[in-house]
Structure prediction request, 447 residues.
Amino acid sequence: MSAPGSGRGQWSSQVGFVLAAAGSAVGLGNIWRFPYSAGENGGGAFVLVYLLCVLGLGLPVMLLEISLGRATQKTPVGAIRAVRPYGPWKGLGYLAIITGLGILSFYAVIAGQVVAYFVDYAQRVVTDQSIFSAYNGWESVVFFAVFLVLTVLVVMGGLQRGIERWSKILMPLLLILMLGIILRGIFLPGAGEGLRWLLMPDFSKLNLHVVLEAMAQAFFSLSLGMGAMLTYGSYLSKKQDIFHCGTWVVFFDTLVAVLAGLMIFPAVFALGQQPDAGPNLIFKVLPAVFAGMTGGNLVGAVFFFLLSLAALTSTVSLLEVISAYCIDERGWSRARTVWIAAGTTLLVGVPSALAWVGASPWATMRILGREGFFSLMDFAWVNLSLPFGALMLCIFATYVWGLDQAASEILSSSPGFRLLAAPWRFFVRWVCPIFIAVILASQLGVF
Ligand code: PHE
Prediction:
């Protein structure tokens, strides 16, 4: 492992990679977006389709991204160029970087909101459930900026000193706290209704739009479709087991999403709130849960603190993708790159921050059938760009890189993958691209 700026680093151990990749995967996608998306899309049926997407699309694409990263030892643009030095394919690498910036521009807004909650819980006794409506747009911009600066500081520390160290201790702690909150929620009177709603699929709620939402959520939650796992894979050594690592990350990420659902929905129903409240669902439900708990303020403070850190390990991976390009391919210094990338993200994200808490023209504008700039960003980058990126990567792997090449990269360090190599190739060649293309096309009004 080398220090930043002195050549390419590598993970000091397999555990280091798994923790950092899981740190990227586990974040607001699981704890904020999964519940709100499930809430808007009917509960159980969404969850079922989500799980199928994780297995059938997420896992194959995860292995593909990590293997392309490791085989080329390069980040998205460089990786594509290493396989195909000329022609339009490198556009896919640039798309990854732009998508990273787009996601970071609204993701850090939510992360900033989480920090704001932490500060509130740590400073005063929060008893009201209307804490969310106490924020205004400029506060949201300030916390957004603060979060970007935190991200910059970690990414500047380079690979091991920055990313690995954070991930190691805090993920397990967050998980334990979530279990505690779940236990509290499921014993509230009326909570059973929420469990049923989350776990029993009601197939009348299923349609192509729900499938798109579940599919996009799967890619988002697993940090796929924009080169984050490819970039992390590029720091993996040839000895480390891609199959084992990839499966672990997928498993762990899915576990946390399901736990987040169990944490939110029993409480939603027990407290008489609406599951389809939208992006601010957890910001309304959790304060109500904490308000009814002895020591709730402390639990709230610790929870939002840990969630800020989970979000940080994800924003770090987003900024890493954007920066690694300028560092590896353009030869910029790490410090310069990271500040410029964060500054650009800030500019792009201010409208999202203003739209997030409402009461500004950015919150009420309508584009592409989306209300408000925030939800436009969320839709464009998560629902459209990530699945499109994953689709193109499958096509690239099948027709340009070659699936034999890809499979042998995985097999070289994962003997346990032998029996699965054939089905994996079938999924990357046929199932993933066709499924993603059909769902995207249907949602873009092609049919
Ligand atoms: N997977 C992260 C989360 O669930 C978000 C993310 C998406 C991070 C894409 C990196 C790339 O919070």
Q: What stands out?
A: The CA atoms of residues 268 and 285 lie 6 Å apart.
